[in-house]
Every structure is written in structure tokens, then in C-alpha cells.
Amino acid sequence: MDRILITGALGQLGSALQKVFYDKGVFVIATDIRDCPKDIECQYEKLDALCQDDLLNIVKKYEINVIYHLVAILSAKGEKNPFRSWKINMETFQNIIDVSIKCKIKKIFWPSSIAVFGKGSNLKYVPQNTFMDPTTVYGVSKLAGEKLINYYFDKYKLDIRSIRFPGIISMGIKPGGGVTDYIIEMLHASKKGEDYTCFLDKDKRLPMVYMEDAISAIISIMSVERSKLSISSSYNILGFTTTPEEFQLAIKSNGFNIAVNYKADYRQKIANTWPENLDDNLAKKDWGWSPKFGLDETIKVALSLQ
Ligand code: SER
């Protein structure tokens, strides 16, 4: 029986994931650095994942055997304070690894990102294995994390599974500080009938995935037998690709009105070093990745949510 701990459980991905486990009746402890929110249903512990002793105590107290480590400072926000971002992204991951080895944790999930790529990665269509030259401290930390996964699997047989997420689209908790956030901001503006100023150029193509597909990817990769995973780093996945202008037009064709002004800022420079499209065939082959939400399905479901 899985006894799950989630760190960063109040973030965009964590808040959706803990709900899925709770609704399924799986034992799950949500943790985050903030005080316990009033509306959370599953058990909650306030935890600063930089404090290894506190992490160890929670893992022991609840006899945790599976960890989803979702703490991270995202790409754009990370650039404001690179030293702090490195510390939060890497030291928390090292703490998870250390505690996992001590407590014989059987499986860990850790998200990587399309931010690991760079201009040398063949950005028109990024292969699973390619040259990686990230330009943000977030991307550098994710690439380092991918190398650590491989290292600790080789040396300690520690089973860490990972996906390189594109922009994740959801209408619940906002991501806060990512380059792909424009798409969520655009959806919220169109629901409210407000104009939107987009911080990327209208023709900047990026890969995206809808939250429901992101969650099913995590569940799939965590459920498959380890022997099916042909790599011990991180898998590319893709829902669909879009540009801000294409997305704006698709919103309009679904009956919502939105006026968008385009005013690119420093995030455009980061986006220029990220993939336009990518090859996710290895994820399909190894653990059955099969996205259900394309551009139109995503817009329809996102705009119908309350
Ligand atoms: N969505 C993330 C970001 O924009 C990428 O992993 O930072």
C-alpha cells in the first residue's frame, strides 16, 4: 500500500495531485511551506523542505513510502534571485534524496521541465536525448536534477521517476512565475471579459499540456514496472503546441471574446530558448503516455469550469 507524501502540495500541480489521491482514498499527506489552508481535505503538515530534520520526522511519523517532490521556483521568478532559486530547487531535492535513502522510500516523482533545453537543442522538434544548454537558473537546476536521478539510481538503486513538463494549463491554483503562465492568464481574462496584455510575442510557439493529462502522465509513470523505463532521467511529453495568437483565436472560436495586446518582456528572451515542439515517443512506448486534450479540448474544458 502506498503511503504518499507530497511537497509543494499547495502549488499548481500539487493542489491538483493531492486532490486526485484524496478522492481515490489513497493515504496522502500534503505538505507546503504555508499554514494549513482552511479548504484542504487531505491531511496537511506545514513543512519547509529545506529543513531535512523536519522532513525526516514527517516521513517517519506517517511511515511514508512514496514521495512526490513538487517544490520549485519557476523559470521567470527564478531569475529574480538565482541564488535563492538554486537553493530551493536543489537543496530540497538533495534532502528528499537523502531522506529517501535513509528511510528506504520505494518511489519518488520529481518534475523536470522543457527549461532544460536551450538553443543547441534543435528547438523546432526537440528529441528525447539532445544537447542541453539551459539559460535560466531553473533550467540549470532541472538539468542538474536529471543528472542526479541517474546518479542515485546507478549508485543506490533509488527509484526516482521524472517528466519534462511543458506549460501546464489549469484553472485552479495559478503557477506563479513561469514563462508559460500567459496561457492561463489569457483564459482567466477571457472568462472575466477583460482585455489581456501578453508578455510573449504573438507568434511564439511553445509546448503545452492540460492538467488532467499532466496528472494522468504522473500516475502512469509512477504505476509502471521500473523495468519498463528505458532511461533513468526524465521523459519528454507533449499535449499540443500553440502560440498566443493561435490560442486567442481558438478562445474566440469557442464563443468567448478576448482582446489581447502584445508587449513582450524579459520572458520572451527565455521563451526563445525553449522548444517549439518535441518528440514524446519514448514516453508513449515505455509507459503508455497518451494525451487526451488538444488545443480545442483544453479551451472547452477550461472555459467551462467555474
Ligand atoms: N511552466 C514552467 C515555466 O514556465 C516550465 O516548466 O517556468
Explain what this protein looks like in three dimensions.
- This protein is of the alpha/beta class and 306 residues long.
- It is built from eleven helices and 14 strands.
- It has a six-stranded parallel β-sheet, with helices on both faces. It has a three-stranded parallel β-sheet with strand order 6-8-12. Strands 9-11-13 form a three-stranded mixed β-sheet.
- Helix 1 links the parallel strand 1 and strand 2.
- Helix 2 packs parallel to helix 4 and helix 6 packs parallel to helix 8.
- The protein is globular and about 55 Å long.
- The model has no long low-confidence stretch (mean pLDDT 96).
- The site of serine has 11 residues, from loops.
Comma- or semicolon-separated keywords:
6-stranded parallel β-sheet; 3-stranded parallel β-sheet; 14 strands; binds serine; 306 residues; 11 helices; alpha/beta
SS content category: alpha/beta
**Largest sheet report:** 6 strands, parallel
Instruction: Write down the overall geometry.
Output: globular
H/E series: EHEEHEHHEEHEEEHEEHEEHEHHH
Helix content: 40-55%
Topology, pairings included?
Layout: E1 3-7, H1 12-24, E2 27-32, E3 43-46, H2 52-61, E4 66-69, H3 75-78, H4 82-102, E5 107-109, E6 112-113, H5 137-156, E7 160-161, E8 163-165, E9 167-169, H6 182-192, E10 196-198, E11 206-210, H7 211-223, E12 235-236, E13 240-242, H8 244-253, E14 260-262, H9 266-271, H10 281-287, H11 295-304
Parallel strand pairs: 1-2, 1-4, 2-3, 4-5, 5-7, 6-8, 8-12, 9-11, 10-14
Antiparallel strand pairs: 11-13
Helix pairs in contact: 2-4, 4-5, 6-8
The structure holds serine (SER).
Serine binds next to loops.
